[in-house]
Every structure is written in C-alpha cells, then in structure tokens.
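Incident log, entry 3
Record: GCN5-related N-acetyltransferase (107 residues)
Problem: checksum mismatch between cached and fresh output.
Input:
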Amino acid sequence: MESGDRPAAEARWLKLTRKSLPAVARARRWPVEADHCFQRIFLDTACDGVWYDRIPGRPAYAHADRALLDRAIALAEAALADEVDLAALNRRSLTWRRKRTVPLTGS
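Fresh output:
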C-alpha cells in the first residue's frame, strides 16, 4: 500500500478487522471473533508488546504511525490468508498484557 494513502490504509484495516476476519473466525475455529480482539492481536504484534505503550491515542489505528499500521495490516492479511498462526499471536498478546499488569515488587 502506498505510504501516503492513509485513508485507504485505515479503510483496509477496518474492513479486515471488522468484516473479513470475523466472517471466517468461527469456521477456522479461531480463539477470537470480535473486531477489537483482532485489532488487539495485530497491533500488539506490530508493536512487539502492548500497543497502548506505543500508540498515544484512541482509536489506535488512527494514531499509529504509518509503518506500524502497515505492519498490523500485513499481519491481518497474513491471518486471512492462513499464513500466520492467529492462536499463537493471541497467546503472545495476552502474555504481554498479563506481564504488564503484574505489580512490581519492592526491594
């Protein structure tokens, strides 16, 4: 996708996460079906950690830098093409989130 076409990238992101992926989720027996879950998984993976540690505003896709959004879109497209293990990406995302919420212990 051309780097300057932000509206097209956002439209592609929304189509993938709100329509295309939820439409096949049940048949593929994925662990998630809701749009916000797909968005969490792909944004966390693109950020290599919890997305809200890297993206300053909401909605995240509108505030992500273009390179990050492009990575998230590529992951979503790979999931749709059955080229990545969505369940594994989901587990990793959830692990990052559990680690982030563990309270620090004092010394």
